[in-house]
Design brief:
By secondary structure, the chain is α/β, with parallel strands linked by helices. The protein folds into 2 domains: about 140 residues, Aspartate Aminotransferase, domain 1 (Alpha-Beta Complex), CATH 3.90.1150; about 240 residues, Type I PLP-dependent aspartate aminotransferase-like (Major domain) (Aspartate Aminotransferase, domain 2). Helix content is about 45%, strand content about 15%. A 7-stranded mixed sheet has the order 2-8-7-6-5-3-4, sandwiched between helices. The chain has a 4-stranded antiparallel sheet with strand order 9-10-13-12. β3, α6 and β4 form a beta-alpha-beta unit. The longest helix is centred in the last third of the chain and has 25 residues. Bound molecules: glutamine (GLN). Glutamine (GLN) binds next to loops.
Length: about 375
């Protein structure tokens, strides 16, 4: 038999799926894969339910329901002061995952270099490679996950087609600083490149800070493709409704990838997301405030168990150094160990690295009910006290 695709054939099952399956097998509290354990606002779900009964249920317009494209443009005006043309600059996708693939397939030609920031979210490297791109990886440095200026500059060259920037950052919970964004913007302009901005956690920025999209920085409006996801903004991760905001020429080419990958996205869910994006400021503020309280609860609890905790300025996640607990195996072994023996699942940070030589950190997810977080803390406390 002839060989199947070497890039896809060589990949493992994603760590999120692996750890969630292991958590179910062992009855563990799942603080691995990032999804809330309560569903988002009832009025949004009710709007979707009504739309399933009343319609629309047939193929919508390829680039999304006009009402959702307008709602996305209005959202970007309200939160970021952007002037976006809903007809030429917004596309609705089946999740941010598809949106990111559309952007990368739309821009990359074989041999193009693509700057990625490590730890790197799991979909970027495979899609860049499938598109024929050559990754140039820059590492964030613990404990504060700063972006090293010199390595960033060294990663850019005349062959750079684009950078993928994820802020707020999964898995480390970093929000890129104004000066880091400025530096990235300068390099993107200097090398005549583009930026694909994964901003799915745009409304999960804590402690009074606000998300600053790269597209709002000088010189970036023509060069950025900004990606968001209703899954995160409305705690409905299974819905898979995402969107891209980009200048017309870039949106058009990402739209060609969308045309042949999914073509459209569930119209009833789109209607509900359009409704949701119009919710008042109090909704968006309390989403972040509630999540920050959960972050504090988990950080406090895990620190009392003996983990060395990192900070988290945004997202669903916080990283912990487990060496202080006296465990000497790899991070993957640690995650398997606590899932099987303590009954709590987490995700090893090495899964977000090309070469898994970083092996002292695990990622915990805090978007869970308080009693679930408390149960996880108690189980870990009991396990390590008796270990
Ligand atoms: N983004 C989620 C996480 O980081 C998982 C999404 C997925 O399973 N693909 O946990």
């Amino acid at each position: 038999m002839k060989k199947t695709n070497a890039i896809l054939g060589g990949l493992e099952t994603t760590i999120f799926e692996v750890m969630s399956a292991l958590a179910v097998e062992h009855g563990a509290v799942n603080l691995g894969q990032g999804f809330p354990d309560t569903d988002g606002p009832e009025d949004i779900r009710r709007t979707a339910a009504d739309a399933i009964i009343e319609g629309p249920n047939q193929y919508p317009r390829m680039l999304g329901l006009p009402e959702l494209r307008s709602a996305v443009a209005e959202h970007d005006r309200r939160f970021y002061g952007l002037d976006v043309d809903p007809d030429r600059e917004v596309m609705v996708t089946s999740g941010a995952t598809e949106a990111l693939a559309d952007c990368l397939f739309g821009l990359i030609e074989p041999g193009d270099e693509v700057v990625l920031i490590e730890p790197v979210y799991d979909t970027y490297l495979p899609v860049v490679r499938l598109a024929g791109g050559v990754p140039r990886i820059v590492r964030l440095e613990p404990p504060d996950w700063a972006l090293p200026e010199a390595s960033l500059e060294a990663a850019f060259s005349p062959a750079t087609k684009l950078i993928v920037l994820n802020s707020p950052h999964n898995p480390v919970g970093k929000v890129f600083t104004e000066s880091e964004l400025e530096h990235i913007a300068r390099l993107v302009v200097h090398f005549d490149a583009f930026a694909v901005c994964d901003e799915v956690y745009e409304h999960l920025v804590f402690d009074g800070a606000r998300h600053r999209p790269l597209i709002t920085m000088p010189g970036m409006r023509e060069r950025c493709l900004r990606v968001g996801s209703a899954g995160k903004t409305f705690s409905l991760t299974g819905w898979k409704v995402g969107y891209v905001i980009a200048p017309p020429a870039l949106l058009a080419v990402a739209g060609k990838a969308h045309q042949y990958l999914t073509f459209t996205t569930a119209p009833n869910l789109q209607r509900a997301v359009a409704y949701g994006l119009g919710k008042d400021d109090a909704y968006f503020a309390s989403l972040a405030d509630d999540m920050a309280k959960k972050r504090d609860r988990l950080i406090r609890g895990l620190a009392s168990v003996g983990f060395e905790m990192m900070d988290s300025a945004g997202t669903y996640f916080v990283c912990a150094d487990f060496r202080s607990l006296g465990f000497n195996g790899t991070d993957e072994a640690f995650c398997r160990h606590i899932t099987e023996h303590a009954g709590v699942a987490a995700v090893p940070l090495s899964a977000f690295y090309e070469n898994a030589d970083v092996d002292r950190f695990v990622r915990f997810c805090f978007c869970k009910q308080d009693h679930v977080l408390d149960e996880a803390i108690e189980r870990l406390g009991r396990h390590f006290a008796s270990a």
